[in-house]
Write a structure and sequence with these properties.
Elements (H helix, E strand, L loop, with lengths): L4 E6 L11 E5 L2 E3 L4 E3 L6 H10 L5 E3 L3 H8 L4 E6 L7 H15 L4 E6 L4 H16 L4 H12 L2 E7 L3 H5 L5 H8 L3 E7 L5 E8 L1 H14 L6 E6 L3 H14 L4 E6 L2 H7 L4 E6 L2
Parallel strand pairs: 1-2, 1-6, 6-7, 11-12
Antiparallel strand pairs: 3-4, 3-5, 8-9, 8-13, 9-10, 11-13
Helix pairs in contact: 2-3, 4-5, 8-9
Bound molecules: heptadecanoic acid.
Heptadecanoic acid binds next to β5, β8 and α10.
Length: 279
């Protein structure tokens, strides 16, 4: 009998839909004292960013609850979950609790939870690989192993124009954030092995920033692999980066997507997140 298989990710993955396989996303939430934005498919990311720009108070985020993860599981028998880095969010923890509850109620069903140690487009690459592993006919344990192996060969680079929301919510130090606060300066960094932000460069102006990103991609081993760029309301810049990567690393396969709410909140308008394969 065919097993009922599903992929589930939190909305930090920036994945909106996945064809050919059952897929659901657990939304994170962004809120102020006046409004709450649920990061689901109906969220207008641009409207949210516009509102937050004019809002003077504090804003915060919340990860999906155990119940929200369970709702995504539905009645699937084999579930592969992906969460934003557990170093910066409770999403992984919440998902692990959902897994425990689900497997207790349905002992014959299996749930795998991947702590991506990253976010956005690196999660997207992991999810695409998972779909590929499943369609090649691998069983549950083989798919899990395949994901672990693949995740050693992926990375994430980010470019931020502002780190205000990261600093205000205690996800980076105020000192680190002050780099990106200066007009025209872009902070470039990567997801560290521990799953937090590691700053690498500061670049003045967009052209310099994009050149720096490409030289970092080379240094970290991008050759003929996939590159997935999430842009935060900045498609024009993402297109320039795509062009530059294709010029400098001609065998790389580059795609662009719009970031969803959670990544747009933290990477802020103008920001880029770049997931890539290391070989
Ligand atoms: O649980 C929650 O409320 C969510 C908290 C998320 C905090 C960090 C989000 C970072 C998003 C910023 C640049 C990329 C960082 C990569 C680090 C691994 C995007």
């Amino acid at each position: 009998m065919q097993r009922k298989i599903k992929i589930v990710a939190d909305s930090a993955s920036d994945v909106r839909e996945l064809t050919g396989i059952d897929f659901a996303t657990a939304p994170l939430k962004i809120s102020t004292s006046e409004r709450e934005f649920v990061d689901d498919l109906s969220l207008d990311v641009g409207e949210m960013a516009g509102y937050l720009k004019s809002y003077k108070g504090t804003s915060r985020t919340a990860c999906p609850s155990i119940g929200e993860w369970l709702m995504c599981f539905g009645d699937a028998e084999e579930i592969y979950c992906f969460t934003i880095t557990a170093t910066l969010s409770g999403s992984y923890n919440s998902c692990m609790n959902a897994k425990a509850e689900y497997e207790r109620e349905h002992p014959e069903r299996r749930v795998y939870v991947c702590n991506s140690l990253s976010t956005g487009p690196e999660m997207g690459l992991l999810i695409e690989k998972t779909k590929e592993l499943i369609s090649s006919g691998k069983d549950f344990d083989e798919v899990c192993l395949g994901i672990e192996e693949y995740s050693k060969k992926t990375g994430l680079i980010f470019m931020l124009e502002s780190m205000k929301n990261l600093a205000n919510n205690g996800r980076v130090s105020k000192v680190a954030a002050s780099i990106a606060g200066v007009l025209g300066i872009r902070a470039i960094g990567k997801a560290s092995d521990r799953g937090d932000l590691q700053m690498l460069d500061k670049a003045r102006g967009e052209k310099k920033a994009l050149e720096t990103i490409v030289s970092r991609l080379k240094e970290f081993g991008l050759k003929c692999g996939n590159v997935l760029i999430s842009h935060c309301l900045n498609e024009r810049c993402a297109l320039s980066l795509k062009e530059l990567i294709e010029k400098e690393i001609s065998e790389a396969k580059v795609r662009i997507q719009a970031a969803r709410g959670l990544c747009t909140f933290y990477a802020e308008s103008g920001g880029l997140l770049i997931g890539f394969e290391k070989c």
